[in-house]
């Protein structure tokens, strides 16, 4: 087999970039699911596709692993035109996670995770070791879960197995279609949190489809907002999208409560009023100095306090008032106009 860009997986930093050039999908009945779509997905980043139902998000995602064949355009992964490759073979090098996972019910968890490595001809010992390593990585004890069957797991645990299975052959690209939407909101929050930690370790290039703006803001390095027919309205990091929606359509989509969401993606550190190391905290609530304005506000509200102290390595490093929390995004928004 030739060593194409997609197969050169390995140590951290080996994620691939994805370039979508004027791709489109028109069905034989004339439906234009995606008219003309372009996007540059940076290596090692998590890009979210979001937009109303039927706007073509899943179609775009499934064109990247060619479960749907584009009717126009080019798709490059690290510069290689993947439309010229064998589609079945291609899919073995692109992880894919869907809602409700689609685990094989009659195979145990370890066997499910080993699906792609088996197709790639790995030996049994290596497959089992890899499955157990991934179970650890997604927070499931292999001794307890490896031999279980999918119906013996909770929905959230199955979803983690789905992520582990998609990562099994160490793909450089991971596609995720509404991966967390089938689980209840509390489990979803925990899964998203764990998934962010996992991504900090594996640093894959990820394209994730969701219709949930909170999920997009929480997970995305960049968010692409789409309208019907796969029309790209805006492509920007979450903080920029929330503070500077460049059309009313995007503004409406990100929602009226975007001020609060913006707090959740704005670091608190630049807003801190410096404190001498070792200065007394005086019963004020504390927050981690690498947290967000939202964390600071939550700490103040919980303690019914008007000021919070930011702490780093156990030492107070600055303070922040309630008024300052609301000043910062305001100043930022004004500075950007
Ligand atoms: N086989 C098909 N023939 C004709 N039209 C289709 C076919 N499959 C999908 N479509 C249409 O393509 C459009 C895009 O569908 P797609 O599933 O990509 O939307 P989506 O944004 O992922 O929606 P949702 O959020 O509801 O999952 C829809 O209007 C859909 O009806």
TrEMBL record:
Residue ranges of domain ABC transporter in the record: 18-254
Coiled coil: none
SUPFAM superfamilies attached to this UniProt entry: P-loop containing nucleoside triphosphate hydrolases
Keywords annotated in UniProt: ATP-binding, Nucleotide-binding, Transport
Any one GO MF annotation of this record: ATP binding
Enzyme superclass (EC): translocase
EC number in record: 7.6.2.9
Keyword presence, Transmembrane: no
Presence of keyword Calcium: no
Membrane spanning residue stretches: none
Domain of life: Bacteria
Family: Belongs to the ABC transporter superfamily.
Name recorded for this polypeptide: ABC-type quaternary amine transporter
Organism of derivation: Paractinoplanes ferrugineus
Origin organism lineage: Bacteria, Bacillati, Actinomycetota, Actinomycetes, Micromonosporales
